[in-house]
Amino acid sequence: MKVMKRRAPKSFSYSVYYEQAPEGGYVAFVPALPGCHTQGETLEETERNVKEAIALYLESLASHGEAIPEEGRSYQGRVTVPA
């Protein structure tokens, strides 16, 4: 009898950017997944929400037969310019 090994689901990792919202709370967006964004009252809530938003986004891509993007290297920086 042949035993089938169950493979663990593939994991994807994406950069997430969090910003304080002017009206309070935080907004999170995922540059590699256009339109994937969410918000929350605290950073912890926003992180939970963005994980759910990413999972639903990927689920939607898979159900429509679309490729799931894999993010390459990304860098974040800050520049200061005179105004």
Summary, kept brief:
The protein is an alpha+beta fold. It has one helix and three strands, in the order E-E-E-H.
Describe this entry's structure for a reader:
With 83 residues, this protein is of the alpha+beta class. The protein has a domain at 17-63. The chain contains one helix and three strands. It has one helix at 43-63, and strands at residues 17-20, 26-29, 37-40. A three-stranded antiparallel beta sheet has the order 1-2-3, with helices on one face. The longest helix is centred in the middle third of the chain and has 21 residues, at 43-63. It is elongated. The model has no long low-confidence stretch (mean pLDDT 91).
